[in-house]
């Protein structure tokens, strides 16, 4: 299995509750390496562009407001099968439906404030990584 990269966000509900370290420990214990990471406060424009695929969904404006409601940690995770592996670690979008032991089951507050984002395919991962990181900021 080839080494792959995925893009991750520790969302505002998780940074507010000081959960960055606990979430990073889950990634690292699962064999994913954090090869880039920075704490930012997203602008509305950044959030709108990042979630443009959801622009027509009823929850879009709330989602943009939420993603700009506090700091987030954007990161690049690297490892075998990193995209799928991270989606497994995150669990279902709705924390109430997420499997035991997943990040969203452990820490998610609601379907919106669900603690983490993870890319849904290698192609999306490449685009999301390039949106937030310069190549020189990623140190594998
Ligand atoms: P993500 O993109 O953040 O990793 O999450 P996901 O693939 O599991 O979920 P997606 O369908 O892509 O939705 C993106 C984010 O929008 C918020 N959401 N709110 N109010 C709602 O019904 C609703 N549905 C989704 C969540 O923050 C979700 O992660
Ligand atoms: Mg998604």
TrEMBL record:
InterPro entries, alphabetized: NDK-like_dom (IPR034907), Nucleoside_diP_kinase (IPR001564), Nucleoside_diP_kinase_AS (IPR023005)
EC annotation from Swiss-Prot or TrEMBL: 2.7.4.6
Gene Ontology MF term list: ATP binding; metal ion binding; nucleoside diphosphate kinase activity
Domain named Nucleoside diphosphate kinase-like: residues: 3-140
Cofactor section: Mg(2+)
Gene from which the chain derives: ndk
Organism placement in taxonomy: Bacteria, Pseudomonadati, Pseudomonadota, Alphaproteobacteria, Acetobacterales
Active site per the UniProt annotation: 117
Family label: Belongs to the NDK family.
Binding of ATP, residues: 11, 59, 87, 93, 104, 114
Gene Ontology CC terms: cytoplasm
Catalysed reactions listed for this entry: a 2'-deoxyribonucleoside 5'-diphosphate + ATP = a 2'-deoxyribonucleoside 5'-triphosphate + ADP; a ribonucleoside 5'-diphosphate + ATP = a ribonucleoside 5'-triphosphate + ADP
Annotated organism of origin: Elioraea tepida
Function: Major role in the synthesis of nucleoside triphosphates other than ATP. The ATP gamma phosphate is transferred to the NDP beta phosphate via a ping-pong mechanism, using a phosphorylated active-site intermediate.
Keywords for the protein's UniProt record, in alphabetical order: ATP-binding, Cytoplasm, Kinase, Magnesium, Metal-binding, Nucleotide metabolism, Nucleotide-binding, Phosphoprotein, Transferase
Predominant place of localization: cytoplasm
Entry protein name: Nucleoside diphosphate kinase
Localization: Cytoplasm
């Amino acid at each position: 299995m080839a080494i792959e990269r995925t893009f991750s966000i520790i969302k505002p509900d998780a940074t507010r509750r000081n959960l960055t370290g606990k979430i990073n420990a889950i990634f690292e214990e699962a064999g994913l390496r954090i090869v880039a990471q920075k704490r930012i406060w997203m602008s509305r424009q950044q959030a709108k562009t990042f979630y443009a695929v959801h622009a027509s969904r009823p929850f879009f404006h709330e989602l943009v407001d939420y993603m700009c409601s506090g700091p987030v940690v954007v990161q690049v995770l690297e490892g075998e099968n990193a995209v799928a592996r991270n989606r497994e670690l995150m669990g279902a979008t709705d924390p109430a439906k997420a499997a035991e032991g997943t990040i969203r089951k452990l820490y998610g507050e609601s379907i919106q404030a669900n603690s983490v984002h993870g890319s849904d395919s290698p192609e999306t991962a490449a685009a999301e990584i390039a949106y937030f990181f310069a190549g020189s900021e990623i140190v594998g």
